[in-house]
## 1
Amino acid sequence: MDTKQTSFRILMFPWLAHGHVFPFFELSKKLLSKKNFHIYFCSTAINIDSINNSLQKNLSDFSIEFVELHLPSLPELPPHYHTTKNVPPNLMPTLMQAFQMSSSSFSTIISNLKPDLLIYDAFQPWAAKLASSQGIPAVYFATSGATILSFFHHFHTHGNDNFPFPAIYHRDYEKKDMKAETGSIKVEDAAEGFAFGIFKQSHDIVLIKTCKGLEEKYIDYLSILCQRKMVPVGPLVAEAKNEEENSEIKKWLSTKDQFSTVYVSFGSENYLSKEQMEEIAAGLELINVNFIWVVRFHDGNAVGIDESLPEGFLERVKERGKILQGWAPQAEILAHSSMGGFMSHCGWSSVMESIYFGVPLIAMPLKIDQPINTRLVVEGGAALEIVRDDDGLFRAEEVAKAIKMVVLEKSSGEGLRAKAMELSQKMKMEEEETINEAADQLWQICMKNHDIVQSS
Ligand code: UDP
C-alpha cells in the first residue's frame, strides 16, 4: 500500500445559483485550511467574477484554481445570464437546460484535470456518473438543510404519511405554503429530484451545510434514509468584506439602538409581486421600526423603486428606513449589533446566517424548501412565522404584528433572541470540529482510491 501521497486534488462543481456557488467556495477555503488539498473550482465566467469581486485576499493566497465552464450558446441566454443571481424567472428552465447541455464540456474538464475527487451538487448527479466512469470518486455536497432533505427523501420513499416529525410536516403544505407569487413546485417533483440519484452517486458520505446543534435528529434520519454517513460542514458564512459602500450601511446602522432594526430580504432568486411589496411597505409603516429592505427587480421587470412602492413611502420613512436596490452585504448587516430581527424568505443560507449571528427570524417563506426551513427554526424557538391569508398572500397587518412581536416587544422578542443566541453558540462551538471531520473523511476517500489505483 502506498501511503506517501501528500496532497490530493479536489474538483468542486456547484450548481450556478449564488446559494450554491458561495457555500462551495467557503467549503473549499475551509478544507484548504485543514489539509493539503489543491482545489479546482469549476463554474461559469460570471460566477467566477462574482467570487473574485467578493474576495478580501488575492485568490493566489488560497490555492484554488478556477476552471471555466462553457455553457452552450443559446440566443435567449447570453453569458450574463449564466448565473441565477439576475436571471428572470421565466429563463430558469433554459438555464437549467443549458447547464445539463454542458455535460460534454465538463467531461473534457474531468479528463484533463484527472482530480482525485469530485464534489458535486444536487442538480448534477450526471457529473458524479462521469467521474465514476473515469475511476474518480464523487461526494455530494448538500447546500440545503437536513430537515428538508429528509422530508423530500421520506416523501419519495414512503409517500405522504408517517413522516416521523409532525412539527415539520403538515397536510396543507402544498395547498397554502407553496402558493407563493414567485412560483410553486410540486412536492412530488421535488422529492423525485432531491432523493433520486443525487445520494446514490455519493461515495460513502454526504457533506451537508448544517450543524448538529440545529438539526441533529434530521441529520440522523437522513443518514438512515439515504444510507450514507451525513457529515455536517457548518454554516459556511463568508468572511466580511470591508468596502466603502458597506461601511456607509454600517455607519447608518450604528446610529440605531441595539436590537432595534429589522433587515428585510428575500434572497438571491426571489422577486416579489407589486401587490406583495405594497403590503410589506404598508406593514412597515404601521409600526415605528427601523429597517433595511433589499428590493430586487429582474431584468424583464425593471421598474423604478418609486413606482413599486406606495406613493410618498420613501419620504415618510426616510429617518428610520433604508432601501437598498438589488443587493446587500447580508452577513455584515446581520452581524451588526443593531439587528433585532431578519424578515426573510428562509432560504437555507439566510436561516443559517441569521442563526449564526443570533438574530431571530420573522419568516415569510415563499417556495420549495422555505416553508420547511421555517418550521425548523420555529420549532427551535428562534423564529416567528407571519400568518398569511387564504390566497397565500402576506398582508400588512400580519407583517406589522410579527415584526412588532420580534423586534419591538420585549416579552416575546427577548425569548426568541435568547434562543437564536443559544443556537448561535452551539453552531460556533461545533464549527471547527465539523470541518476537521469533513476534511479527514475526504482525505480518506482520496487515499483509499489512490491505493486501489496504485495496486491495480
Ligand atoms: N445574499 C446577499 N445579499 C443579498 C441577497 C442575498 O448577500 O442582497 C446572500 C445571502 O447572504 C445568502 C444568499 O445570498 O448567503 C442567499 O441564499 P438563501 O439560501 O438564503 O436564498 P436563495 O437566494 O437561495 O433563495
## 2
Amino acid sequence: MDSNLPSTLGSFSYDPAPESAAIARLQSSYGLFINGAFTAPENHAQFATVNPATGHVLATVAQASDADVDRAVAAARHAYETQWSKTTGAERAKYLFRIARLIQERSRELAVVETLDNGKPIRESRDIDVPLAAAHFFYYAGWADKLEHAGFGPAPQPLGVAGQIIPWNFPLLMAAWKLAPALAAGNTCVLKPAETTPLSALILAEILQQAELPAGVVNIITGDGSTGSALVQHPDVNKIAFTGSTDVGRLIQERVASSHKRLTLELGGKGANIVFDDAPIDEVVEGIIDGIFFNQGHVCCAGSRLLVQESVAEEVTRRLLRRVDQLRVGDPMDKNTDVGAINSAAQLARIEELVEWGEREGATRYDANCTLPSEGFWFKPTVFTNVDQSHRIARDEIFGPVLSVLTFRTPEEAVAKANNSVYGLACGVWSEKGSRTLWVAQRLRAGVIWANTYNKFDPASPFGGVRESGFGREGGRHGLEAYLNV
Ligand code: NAD
C-alpha cells in the first residue's frame, strides 16, 4: 500500500457535512432534578456551561448547595424505603427497557447535545456514546430479574442510596454506566455530572420522566466539586461510585474510610499500546490512532504510551506521522471530523503544560499538519518520539491528543516498560502470535487488555483498574456486585 499512495493523500478535502445544532432544543436554564421534578436550587445559584468548540454559552445550570444535596438524598431514601426496594426485579427491568428505548428514540438529540457540550466529534457521540448508553440500560434490564442467579447467593440485597459522581469525557455514557446497574440491583441514586458537561444528564432526567420512573428513584444534581464533596460526606448515602481523577479519588477514599459507605473508584490511566514486529503495520497504525486520538485523548484508558519493537519502530513511526497529518481536526458538529475540541480552558492549559515538559526534557515533538479554529479550545494531535521512561509525558496522564513513543527489544522488556507506571487501567497488545499475546497479557498489570484492537467497549464486559487506576468493576456481571450487599 505504501508506495502506491497518492502523494496528495494528506490534502484530501471534504465538503462540510454539519449536523444541525437546532436539534438540541436546549432550554436557556436548567434546575435540579429532585424527586421526579426540576426544581430551583435553594440559593438560586447558577453557572454557565459553554460549547468548547466556540466558547459560547449553551445554557445555565443550577449549582447544588449542601441543602440541595440533602433534599436529593432524602428523596432517594424515601423512594428506596417506600417503593424501589419493594419493586420486583421484573418491574425494575420494565423501567430500564423503557429508558433504553427512549434513549434510542432521542438519540439524535442526545448526540447533538453531547457534542455541543463536550466538544467531541458528532460521529463519535452518534455512533459510540449514545448507542453504548442505551446498550447499558438494555443489558442491565436483562439482569434485574435474575440477580439470584448471578452467583452472589440466593437473595442478594441492594445497598440503599448510591451517590454517583462522573467526569466530563463521556458524560451520558458514564451516567448510564452508573445508573443502569444500580437500578437493576434495586438501589436509588443521586447522580452528579461534571460541571463542564451537565446537559446530556439533564436530558436523561427528562427521559426518566417520560419513562415514568417513580419520583426520587434517580435524582440528578448539577454543581462543582463542592457538590460532589457534600454527596460523598452525606451520612445517609450507602455507596459512593466515583469516576474521575486519581487525586480526587484519593481524597474521596480518605473521606469515606471512617464511614460505613461502600466505594468504587474508576480513576486515571497511562495505557501502553504494545506493538510487536510481526503485527500488520497498517492495522496497527489505525489502532494507535484510535487508541490515542479517539475523543481527543480524553479517555482514561487511552493508549497514550506507544511501545513499539525496535526492529519496526522507524517504519511504524513514519506511517503513523503521515496518518496523523490526515486527521480532520475542527468543527465537532461536522460529520467528517475526526478530532474535536478540548473540553475546557483548564484542560487545554494542563495539556500545554505537560507538552512543554516533553520538549524541556528532550523528547522530539511532532504536531499534526492542520489548522486550528480561531475560537474555542483546541490542541493539535501531537506525537513525541525519543521519549524516555523518566519523562513526565511518559508517566503523567495528559488526557489529551498527545502520544509518547518508546521502543523495546524483547517481550520481557515490553512488559517491564508497560508495567512501569503507577496506573493500571488498560493495555493493548499487537501481534500475529496468540501465544505471545497471551504470554504478555498474563504479565501486564492492568484491568483491561485488548489484543489486536484498542478502545473496544461492551456492556457485558467488566471495566476497571488496579493500583492508582482505582478498584471495582463497571459493566458485566461484575458491575452488579458493586451495588449489591455481597
Ligand atoms: P475530576 O476528578 O476533576 O472530576 C470528576 C468529578 O468529580 C466531577 O464531577 C467533579 O465535579 C467531581 N469532584 C471534584 N472534586 C470533588 C471532590 N472533592 N469530592 C467529590 N467530587 C468531586 O476529573 P475530571 O477532570 O472530570 O475527569 C478526568 C479524569 O477522570 C481523568 O483522570 C480520567 O482518567 C478519569 N476517568 C476515569 C475513567 C475510568 O473509568 N477509570 C473514566 C473516565 C474518566
